[in-house]
Amino acid sequence: MSDQVVIPNVPIASIIAMTVSLVVSVGLPIILCILVYRKTKARISGFFIGAATFFVFALVLEQILHVIVLGAAGTALTGNIWLYALYGGLAAGIFEETGRYMAMKLCMKKSLNKQNAIMYGVGHGGIEAILLAGLACVNNLVIAVMINSGQAPMLLSLSGVNEVTYQQALGQLMSVATTPSWIFYMVGLERISAIIFHISASYLVYLAVSRKKPLYYLLAVLAHFLMDAAVVVAGKYLPMLALEMLLLLACAGFGFGIWRIYRRERAPIA
Predict the structure, then answer these.
(1) Backbone dihedral region of 74: left (phi > 0), alpha (psi from -120 to 50 degrees) or beta?
(2) CA 234, CA 244: separation in Å to the nearest integer?
(3) Among 65, 14, 5, which residue's Cα sits nearest to residue 185?
């Protein structure tokens, strides 16, 4: 089957775009961690607590819920974009913001201040960027290099003789080879927006814990819900570039508002 398929070479522009997004997805969290540490003397442990919390609550617990709910509801949920956006936004908001709250309340009890809350946000958003976007970029780059070095037939042969598996592998190779180069930049752009959001939401949850005002936690859940749900719905009606630019503007606005609160916040934790 593989010798009957011609897979075009991946343009160098696409490889550059993948590399840029990889650098953003992996490098930005590391750079932010170093900057926050040097500028605020926040504890590095906050970064790893944020990273671990995202992994447990978003990649383990939330995924278990998705398996149960989507398995039971099926296309009744996934086939309706409004219901799917409502469910997905609520699930992400509740799991991730609850994870933040519990981590700050329990794991950062003795070290919680506004600087460490920012470091937590860098870790939470940073590990998401590394695991979800960074690894995807690495995968795409490996495929691109193998295609351009003439190893596409070997990749297809590794998929086995199963027709379904073969078609999936072929689809992935063709996708990397034929996707317009500029789209690969969107991966990095989206991660910038997401990291800004996670730092901002983490600060809201910090206020909920430090001031003992659950309203801030609820605001973080609401903001997370609105962002995720809006992306799902808008993705159906807006071009990708327009969607990513609007997302960046929204997250930048959210981040600016939180930054102003951060600058005014001087009260020590009770």
Answers:
(1) left
(2) 10
(3) 14
- The per-residue pLDDT for 2 is 43
Count Cβ neighbours within 10 Å for each residue of 63-72 and write b for 16 or more, e otherwise: eeeeeeebee
Q: 116 burial class (0-12, 13-18, 19+ CB within 10 angstroms)?
A: buried
Q: Are 195 and 29 in contact (CB under 8 A)?
A: yes
Buried-state track 6-15, b at ≥16 Cβ within 10 A, e below 16 = ebeebbeebb
State the Cα–Cα distance between residues 231 and 247, nearest whole angstrom: 8
C-alpha neighbours within 13 Å on the C-beta side of residue 263: 6
Taking the chain (270 residues) in runs of 10, the rounded mean pLDDT of each run is 72 97 97 96 97 98 96 91 96 98 95 96 98 96 92 73 77 92 97 98 97 96 97 94 96 96 68
Q: Which DSSP letter does residue 3 get?
A: G
Is the separation of the CB atoms in 60 and 150 below 8 Å?
no
Q: For residue 28, with 0-12 CB atoms within 10 Å meaning exposed, 13-18 middle and 19 or more buried, which class applies?
A: buried
Tally helices (H) and strands (E) across the chain.
12, 0
DSSP structure class, residue 11: P
DSSP 201-248: HHHHHHHHHHTT-HHHHHHHHHHHHHHHHHHHHHHHHS-HHHHHHHHH
Tokens of 199: 């730092």
- The verdict on pTM exceeding 0.90 is yes
Chain-centre distance of CA 149, in angstroms?
A: 31
DSSP letter assigned to residue 79 = T
